[in-house]
Structure formats: C-alpha cells, structure tokens
C-alpha cells in the first residue's frame, strides 16, 4: 500500500503545509478508498502512521 505526500503548500503565516493522501481498505468490502488531509510539514510522518 503506497503512501505519498502529493503537494506542498505555503501560507501567509509562514507555516508549510502538505497534502497527504492515504489508501484505506474497507473491512466490509475490501475495496480501497482514498483519504486526503492537510497537515503541517513537520507532522507528515505522524499523519502517515495513523
């Protein structure tokens, strides 16, 4: 299962953000869905561990 940071964005506050897209497998059907979230760059690894 591939996990990847797709884009890095900058805001006016000076904090860098990254868009994290994760493939999540449904326990009921076995199909994969994709979950997207915006996280600060320094917390990307923590977001991928969830």
Automatic annotation (TrEMBL):
<dbReference type="Pfam" id="PF14128">
    <property type="entry name" value="DUF4295"/>
</dbReference>
<dbReference type="InterPro" id="IPR025379">
    <property type="entry name" value="DUF4295"/>
</dbReference>
<protein>
    <submittedName>
        <fullName>DUF4295 domain-containing protein</fullName>
    </submittedName>
</protein>
């Amino acid at each position: 299962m591939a996990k990847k940071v797709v884009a890095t964005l900058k805001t006016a506050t000076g904090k860098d953000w990254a868009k994290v897209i994760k493939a999540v497998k449904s326990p009921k059907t076995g199909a994969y869905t994709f979950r997207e979230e915006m996280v600060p760059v320094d917390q990307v690894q923590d977001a991928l561990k969830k």
